[in-house]
Amino acid sequence: MTTPVASCVSDSVVTLDSVRESLVRQEDTIVFSLIERAKFPTNAPIYDHSLNSFPGFSGSFVESVVRETEAVQAKAGRYENPEENPFFPDNLPPSLVPHRNYTQFLHPAGASININKKVWDMYFTQLLPLFVAPGDDGNYAATASSDLGCLQALSRRIHYGKFVAEVKYRDAPHDYEPAIRSKDRDALMNLLTFKSVEDIVKMRVEKKAMTFGQEVNVNANGTSTTNGNYKVDPPIVGRLYEEWVMPLTKLVQVEYLLRRLD
Ligand SMILES: O=C(O)C(=O)C[C@]1(C(=O)O)C=C[C@@H](O)C=C1
């Protein structure tokens, strides 16, 4: 059996370019997951804590779906993968599938960083209202499941900051060590920030939202036309990255580096 690796990360070939390639591929997943969620209107009852229909749960319907799904996926071994971080890590059942030895690439002290509480709050309170239409079509289970798809894609991308930080540290340990030892968060943030890369990321995700989310029509002679409508407004995807995804990915990097010498 082969030794599994976190996607695109095999210890022998990890470079800043290869982790960036993974971030680029994850953009597709994020944009598609937003497009899927935008099929449904808000469906507000699934977020209302007083309306939960799951016996034995006190949270909202969507929280119940996420907890239950994470429990099943934990049994299937999802959280053995160092790229995956659960939203509700307490009391998750153990994996029932044969243990797979993931390549240990991350430094152990930083590997368990989990900022999913921030990801959850950002998604439900700030992002969701920006791209779903108001209304209620009763498709509660499908809506909750597409919320989970968005949350998992965003969480994976943001926590991928651990891999980015590890590569940056290995490339230039002497640059990072003084700031790590003095716990200088601002200095670490400056060291790991590449503004020109961030500008390109923002432009690319907007372009992907245009490309993947356009309405495509084909007439009888095979000519395709688009009507200029997008399933998710491209500037909202740019804003998602600029205001939340990249800052949270950088927060993960800082938190990880602060533990890098433990
Ligand atoms: O590509 C990097 O160097 C990253 O750290 C990733 C990332 C991002 O989240 O996209 C974050 C910080 C950098 O300023 C540029 C981009």
Automatic annotation (TrEMBL):
Pathway: Metabolic intermediate biosynthesis; prephenate biosynthesis; prephenate from chorismate: step 1/1. Its EC number is 5.4.99.5. Keywords: Amino-acid biosynthesis, Aromatic amino acid biosynthesis, Cytoplasm, Isomerase. It catalyses: chorismate = prephenate. InterPro entries: Chorismate_II_sf, Chorismate_mutase_AroQ_euk, CM_AroQ_sf_eucaryotic, CM_II_prokaryot. Its main location: cytoplasm. It is found in: Cytoplasm. GO terms for molecular function: chorismate mutase activity; protein homodimerization activity. GO terms for cellular component: cytoplasm. GO terms for biological process: amino acid biosynthetic process; aromatic amino acid family biosynthetic process; chorismate metabolic process; prephenate(2-) biosynthetic process. Residues 142-253 form the Chorismate mutase domain. It holds the Pfam family CM_2. The keyword Amino-acid biosynthesis applies. This is Chorismate mutase. It comes from Turnera subulata.
